Amino acid sequence: MNGPTGLDQSLEELEGQRWNEPPSDATGLVKAIHALRRRPIGTLSATELARLIGQKVGLRWLLPLAVQILSDTAPNQARGGFYDDDLLTAVLTCGSATWATHPELATEVNKTIESLIDLSPYTQEAVAQFLKDLRQNR
């Protein structure tokens, strides 16, 4: 898998599209998504990536970054360390169309989840759906 590119650029720069300011009565989530789109993607935390990916924003650039983080931190989870289930769940729930478009990322995610242990029931459900999506794409 190729590493993420454009880490010093924002989604707005990478996409070449600036969103208008959210309405004043927008939800906190909408305001946060708009603000996160302006930040260089290399500065986004796992939580911020999960938020954007969960809203299907910037997947072309954020999925490779998130998959790399998940892959890099999986060995730590097996040793009893912290693992970001929110980021994993956001990635896993991108849907069948995403994995059909990015089969190399799907393969990397599959390798990563095979190495994880002791996942929450909620995360196990997301894994099951991800695996079903992969089977549908073959």
What does this structure look like?
The chain has 138 residues and is mainly α. The protein has helices spanning 11-15, 28-36, 46-54, 59-78, 85-92, 96-101, 103-114, 121-136. The longest helix is centred in the middle third of the chain and has 20 residues, at 59-78. The protein has 8 helices and no strands. It has one domain (11-136). The mean pLDDT is 90.
- Termini distance? 19 Å
Q: How many domain modules?
A: 1
- Describe the sheet with the most strands: none
Structural class: mainly alpha
Query: Helix and strand succession?
Result: HHHHHHHH
Number of strands: 0
Mean pLDDT: 90
Oligomeric state as shown: single chain
Morphology call: globular
Beta-strand content: under 5%
Q: Low-confidence segments, ≥5 residues, pLDDT <50?
A: none
Number of helical stretches of at least 4 residues = 8
Helix content: 55-70%
Task: Using the CA coordinates, give the radius of gyration.
Answer: 15 Å
Task: Write a concise synopsis of the structure shown.
The chain has 138 residues and is mainly α. It has helices at residues 11-15, 28-36, 46-54, 59-78, 85-92, 96-101, 103-114, 121-136.
